[in-house]
Amino acid sequence: MTNNTFHDKLQSFNRGPLTSRGISVLQVNMGYRCNMACAHCHVSAGPGRSEVMEGKTVESILRVLRENPIATLDITGGAPELNPHFRALVAGARKAGKRVISRTNLTIFFEKGMDGLPEFYREQGVELVASLPCYLEENVNRVRGDGAYHKSIDALRMLNRLGYGDESSALRLSLVYNPGGAFLAPPQGALEADYKRVLKERHGIVFTRLFAFANMPVGRFRDSLARSGTLDAYLDMLASAFNPATLDTIMCRSLLSVGWDGALYDCDFNQILGIAVSSDAPRHIRDFDFAALSGRRISMDDHCFGCTAGQGST
User: Fold this and answer.
1) Where are the beta strands (DSSP E) in the chain?
2) Which of 5, 136, 181, 299 reaches 20 to 30 Å from 66, CA-CA?
3) Residue 3's pLDDT is what?
4) Rounded distance between C-alpha atoms, residue 6 and residue 10, angstroms
5) What is the rounded CA–CA span in Å between residue 176 and residue 211?
6) CA–CA separation, 202 vs 194, rounded Å?
7) Distance, CA of 269 to CA of 220 (rounded, Å)
8) Domain architecture of the chain: domains with CATH
9) Residue 127 CB: number of other CB atoms within 10 A?
10) Range with the lowest mean pLDDT among 104-113, 180-189, 192-201, 265-274?
11) What are phi and psi of 224, to 5 degrees?
């Protein structure tokens, strides 16, 4: 990569350093175990991963949610549903009056032990953010494995029958697009229109909205770039596409990430890279201090170009 680091880029626009503007979202990674091993996965999740959040950490998270003005719990993984404490976390957060988002890969609905999961989501009023990296079967299966597309379609139909994604329903169902290689996503609005048209025409599926995220140069995707000799070119592309307008809404300014072991980070990507929150703030959920963490300085590195390239990934 060139010497144009993220810190230098911020300085050139008189925008650094970045600081938190409060904590409206607590994002919780329940572990890296997953029923899939997607090519673009920044946490390198898969069936063989053993990192799983323990019950005592879930209890600390629920205490923080009850005692602090945090509006939203955003649950991720791996496949967070595989954690044995997942439903307790969801139910506890809803009881505390919090909005709950679950990031699901859709195919998890068909795994052993997941009976009743879609109905549980509906009963708890959970907002779903579901990964569907393309609306075409060939592209999805290339990234996620053979058969993933049809399982995803079947899961979306199941959710639609329960009321998810309908314009008249409060049950929000968002989809996530990821590029199929080392390039940026097309404009989100136009891509959303394509998704809605194709999925409706071919499968009768409706959904609320689409998020188009860049592939982060972290984890399994970074490894694949390194093996193909394209890592530096990809990093340079992200840096060249830097958009200062994304800095006002970049997720780390309103979000705090909790790792599977309870450690605190500015985002899920910093978590994977082991970049902790600033040293003047608590670094574990058991020591949570809303005031100290709400005004913290954001820890940054060059992977942050992935959230500020083009239309951003926030």
Assistant:
1) 25-29, 72-76, 99-104, 127-131, 173-177, 209-212, 255-258, 264-265
2) 299
3) 45
4) 6
5) 5
6) 12
7) 12
8) 6-308 (3.20.20.70)
9) 18
10) 180-189
11) -65, -35
